[in-house]
Amino acid sequence: MTAMTGTDVSQMQLPRFSGIPTFMRVPYATDPAAFDIALAGVPFDGGVTARPGARFGPREIRNMSTMMRAIHHVTRFNPFEACRVADVGDVPFDDLYHLERAHDDIRRFFEPLYRAGKIVLAAGGDHSVTYPIFQAIAPQKPIALVHIDAHTDTWDAFKGSKFTHGAPFRRAVEAGLLDPTRTIQIGIRGAQNSDEGWRYSLDHGMRVVFIEEFDALGPAAIAAEARRVVGDGPVYLSLDVDGLDPVFTPGTGTPEIGGLLTRETLALLRGLDGLNWIGGDVVEVSPPYDQTGNTALVAATLMYEMLCLFAKRAAPGAGA
C-alpha cells in the first residue's frame, strides 16, 4: 500500500457548523508516524501579568479555524495536499497551579513531537508557553527567532517569578536555547515603567523593530531584514496577537494601540517564505475579551498562513 502523502480533508467537506472542531478540521492523531506537521493547543494562562483568559484561546481558535479553506489565494499552495497535518490535541496538565511545574507539563508534551522531527504549530495560551516549547526543541545549537509582538518579552522577574509571559525569550537566551544575534522582534511599542526589556534585547544583539520603523519601511523591507537576521539555520516563529492593533485583536491580555494591520501582518508572513522553519506559535488570544470572535478568527487565519510556510518546508523533497 502506498503511504498517504497528504491530509485527509474529508471533514472540510462538512458544513462548517458540524463535525468535531479540530484545528482547520484536520484529523486528530497522536502517533507522530501519522503526520508531518502537528497543530497543538496550550490552554494555559498562569503566566499572565494583566488580563487573564488565554487558557480558553485554543478552543476558540479551533472553532474559528473552521472558516479556513485549503488553497491559498495568492500562491495557490495547498498545505494539506503537500503534507500530512494533524491536530494532536491540548497539553494535559498535572500541575496547573504551579507555574514552573505547569511549564514542565508543556515541555513533556512537545518533546516527543520534536524528537520525531515534526514541525509543530501551537496555539496558546499566554506567551510564557514558548519557553517550555523551546526546552522541548532542545536544539544542539541556539535557534533563530522571528518574534511579532508589541512587547519584547525579555523582562526579568515579576512579583517573584522569572517565568511570566514577559520573560520567555530572556529565559531562552540564558538557557542557551535562543541565539539573540539571530533574533528579530517586530512591532514593539507602548510605554513601559522600565526600559529593562528593551535594553536587554538591544544589549544582547537582538534586532528590535519598533512600530515606527515598521511603518517607515513597510512589511516587505522588514521581511527582508528578518531573513538577513535569522539566516539559513533553524528558525522559530512566535506571534503574539497583541502585535496587531487591538482594533483587529481586542481579545488579548495586554493590548497596545498603534499596532500592525492585518494586511501588513499577512504581507510580513508571506515575505518569510522559504526559511528553515522548525515550529511556531500564535499566543495571547483571550476569548473573554473577544466579544465578536474576531481575535480568534485573526489568530486562526494567521495560523493558516504559518501552516503554509511550514508545509512548504516539511513537504517531501523540500529539504533536498
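The record above closes out task 2.4. Task 2.5 opens with a second protein, given below.
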Amino acid sequence: MPHAIVLSETGGPENLRWQEVTVGEPGPGQVRLRHTAIGLNFIDVYHRTGLYPLPSLPAVIGLEAAGIVEAVGPGVSDLTAGTRVAYASPPAGAYAEVRLMPADRLVALPDGIDDAHAAAMMLKGMTAEYLLCRTYKVKAGDTILVHAASGGVGLIVCQWAKHLGVQVIGTVGSDAKAELARAHGCDHPIVYTRENFVDQAKALTGGAGVAVVYDSVGKDTFMGSLDCLAPMGMMVSFGNASGAVPSFEPGILSAKGSLFLTRPTLMTYTAKRADLVASARALFEVVLKGAVTVEINQRYPLRDAAQAHRDLEARKTTGSTLLMP
C-alpha cells in the first residue's frame, strides 16, 4: 500500500506521521496521481498548526507536487495515463506517494521542465506571477521592497522583477542570504538583523519610498513596511511567517500617504481554470527562457517531513525545498 504523512491533530511537527493509506480509483473529473516530487511551503505549516484550518482531521497536508497520471476517471479528456503534471492548489493531500486529484487543477508539464523543478516552483512561481503581474503590475523603473528575499518566493520575485526592469530592495537574515539574493537579482539586500530596513529603504530611494512592498513575514515587518511606501503605494501582505498581523485602525493608511493594502492568496488568483493555466504558462515561459532559475537547496525523504518543517520554521532553508516520495 502507498504511504502518506497523516496529520491527526493540529500542533507541532511531531504530529506529522508516516502511515499506510488507501487510494481508490479516480471518480468523475479525477485522476490518480503518483507523485515524483513534492513542494514544501509555509502554508503547510499553517495547516499543520491550525492557523489555516483544514476541512477535517485526520488529513494529509500539502498543496504542491509533480507526478505522473496513473489513471483517469470518467469525464477526463485532456489527460491520459503517463502524462507528467504538476499542481499548486487545494484540496490538500500532496504529502503522499499516491493520491486522487481533480483533473482541472492539474497542469501538463512542458518537456523543458523536469518534475523536481516543477514541484519546486509551481506554488512559489505562480505566487510571484500574480504578485508582480496582477496584484501590483510592476513596470520598468519601479523600485520595490521584497521581504524574505532569499526564500523560495523571494528568489523568484527578485529574478522576475529584475527581468521586467525593476529596481529590487530585499530583506534577508544573514550575509550569506544577502549574497544569494544578490545573485538572483536583488539590487540592494538589507540584513535586517543589523540594519533598520525602513531607514535603508528610505535612503536607497532618496526618501521617496517604494512603489510596492511584498511582505510574506507578517507581524514583525508589517508596520515598518508601511513606512517604506511612497504616497499611494501598495502594501501586499501575502504571508504570516512571523505570525499574524495585529489589528490596526484603517486610518493609519491615510496618515501614511493614502496607502493601498491587500491580502491576496494564490488560491483566489488561480480559482478559475483559465487563470490557473495562464499563470502556469507565464511561469514556464520565464523559466524556459532562462530569466528565472529555480533553486532547489534542500531535499528530504517524504517520511522526514517533520524535520523539514522544523528547519523551515527555524529559517534554516533557502530557495525551494522538496520532499521526495
